[in-house]
Amino acid sequence: MTTAFPDHSVVPPVWSRITNLEVDRGEGSWLITTGGERYLDYSSGIGVTNTGHAHPRVVAAIQAQAAKLLHGQQNIVYHEPGLRLYERLRGLLPGGPWSAFLSNSGAEAVEASVKLARVATGRPVIISFRGGFHGRTAQTMALTTAKDVYRAAFEPLPGSVYHTKFPYCYRAAGGAHAPDAGCSCDWEAELDLLFHQVIYPNRVAAIIVEPVQGEGGYIIPAPTFLPRLREITRQHGILLIVDEVQTGFGRTGEMFAVQHWGVEPDILVMAKGIASGLPLSGILARTELMDRLPPGTHGGTYGGNVVSCAAALATLDVIDDEDLVANARARGAQLAGGLRELQADHPAIGDVRGLGCMVAMEFVKPGTGDGRTPDADLSKRVIAEALERRLIVLSAGSYGNVSRIIPPLVTTSEEVDRALGILEASVIAAGG
Ligand SMILES: Cc1ncc(COP(=O)(O)O)c(C=O)c1O
Asked: Which residue among 44, 114, 133, 166 has the greatest number of ligand 1 atoms within 8 angstroms of its CB, and so is best to mutate?
């Protein structure tokens, strides 16, 4: 016998709503409601379900582990899934040698990276990029400037955090340009000014950066950006932390996005795609840095949960065995290519951006100002029209005028075509 769900009002309003779907189960790229309606989930639960919903191999690993041990606290015991995952993560990124640390959420892993950077360097200051998103805890809010709503109500925030300009080629002063067309964005001059006006570089422990800004609007920097940032950080003895919470585990068409630019960070932050939906996060840091965190200075009750570790190992197997990184590249190119064709007929689509399966349309008012005036209402309407047609996509961007499309990496060519058809119909229906 089934009973009616409690009223939605039991959920506090702080959980801003993207849909009101009551979901029963997920299968691959699809979410199925309690009423049996199928939705193509191109949100991937905000970039989490890279292997699709309920991948049978991940589910089997979770079931087998859950029947043996649910919690093996990291300070108290060792468990096989944890040991195997720690070992496996070390080999996931070229360079190193790396050591991993495991925690629960993206924000918690960012916190770990900041604590490590401060201890390892003995310096206090962290620099992050305008438009960046790093989480919702006090320290990570201080690093976050993707949108005022993430931080503005919570001042005062932890200090010794400064923000500098991210190269946003579509919104460059003087006119939009393609990221690979020779970047005129003045991010380097702005960082240099920060070093002259605000803080000595030798007081900076780390610069934290998303290789592709996520919540900020799926902003892909010029190819010179990360390599040059690496040079600058090395020159000043500043650690480079890359926040790959949203870009990691194949999402952009490489295991980690920094690999597109051949950049080796000092610390890499990961979460979301790591365990197909079970809570797990972590950092990879150069071993000689990680070894500078003395026993007991960091940790947590649930970090590296045994069931989550088993899910992560199965997730990594699926990513390898099903060649999901290559599929992310192919399906992402198909999706971005289709949206560029759509853009040709719809000037309100000011920009189409994509790296692997991280794809976005930025909506503007073409007849207003310099043609790049953000149109958040149109983006919102497109997302709502897509939902009407049973496609789930999300909003992003500091102005809320970006629709981002985050397919699971298992998605098929047919599903991408279906999504493109729905998005075209949605842009037209929304008046774009
Ligand atoms: C780049 C980035 N860093 C950190 C976080 C925070 O992760 P969590 O929500 O798991 O704390 C997010 C979440 O969207 C993110 O996209």
From this structure: 133
- What residues have CB less than 8 Å from 134, skipping those under 6 apart? 106, 107, 110, 128, 140, 143, 144, 208, 210, 243, 245
What are the phi and psi torsion angles at 70 (to 5°)? Answer: -95, -30
The confidence score (pLDDT) of residue 286 equals 98
Ligand 1 atom with the shortest distance to the CA of 246? 16
Which run of H or E residues covers position 425? helix 413-429
Best residue among 151, 246, 251 to mutate for probing ligand 1's pocket (most ligand atoms within 8 Å of CB) is 246
Measured CA to CA, the distance from residue 92 to residue 282 in angstroms comes to 13
Residue 299 burial class via C-beta count within 10 angstroms: exposed 0-12, middle 13-18, buried 19 and up: middle
**Spacing, Cα 313 to ligand 1 middle (Å):** 21
Domains of the chain with CATH codes: 8-54+323-429 (3.90.1150.10), 60-321 (3.40.640.10)
Cα 75 to Cα 71, 101, 104, 292, 397: the distances in Å are 12, 13, 15, 18, 40
Cα–Cα distances (Å) from 87 to 65, 91, 250, 319, 357, in that order, read 18, 7, 19, 17, 27
Copy the structure tokens of residue 361: 């349309």
pTM: 0.97
Residues near ligand 1 with C-beta < 6 Å? 46, 105-107, 110, 133-135, 210, 214-215, 243, 245-246, 271
Cα–Cα dist 145/143, whole Å: 7
Return the bridge partners of 25, or none.
32
Task: Give the pLDDT confidence of 57-93 residue by residue, as tens digits.
Answer: 999 999 999 999 999 999 999 999 999 999 999 999 9
